[in-house]
From TrEMBL:
Coiled coil location: none
Record has Transmembrane as a keyword: yes
Designated name of the protein: HMA domain-containing protein
UniProt domain HMA: residue ranges: 45-108
UniProt keyword terms in alphabetical order: Membrane, Metal-binding, Transmembrane, Transmembrane helix
Organism: Populus tomentosa
Record bears the keyword Transmembrane: yes
Parts of the chain that traverse the membrane: 20-43
Superkingdom, taxonomy of origin: Eukaryota
GO molecular function: metal ion binding
Pfam families: HMA
InterPro entries reported in the protein's UniProt record: HMA_dom
PROSITE patterns reported in the protein's UniProt record: HMA_2 (PS50846)
Amino acid sequence: MLTDVLTCFWRFYLLYCLPFFLFDDITLWLLLIFACLMVFNFVKLQTVVLKVGMSCGGCVGAVKRVLGKMEGVESYDIDLKEQKVTVKGNVQPDAVLQTVSKTGKKTTFWEAEAPAEPATAETLAAA
């Protein structure tokens, strides 16, 4: 992926920026625009929340080790009490699930809580 970004950058620079370098300051603006486009197109940070069967500090350490080695992970938070692992970074959810599963702990995606239904006249009358 990094080689794709660099290749794209050099092609852009050689075709659009270099010819204008001696004539105008538009080169800097083009580079800035290109850099912004690259950041928004190639770096897509995601948050992945997992339920991991952890019972002790050793389990937490095992999860920390595998997440620390995983490429693209920016940060992670491990809550032993809730058995919840939150991972943020340029990662794919399935890849995070597989990586944490390598610890031997039961790992699933954290189920989002269902939103509470608004109270209607019928439900209030029934109560």
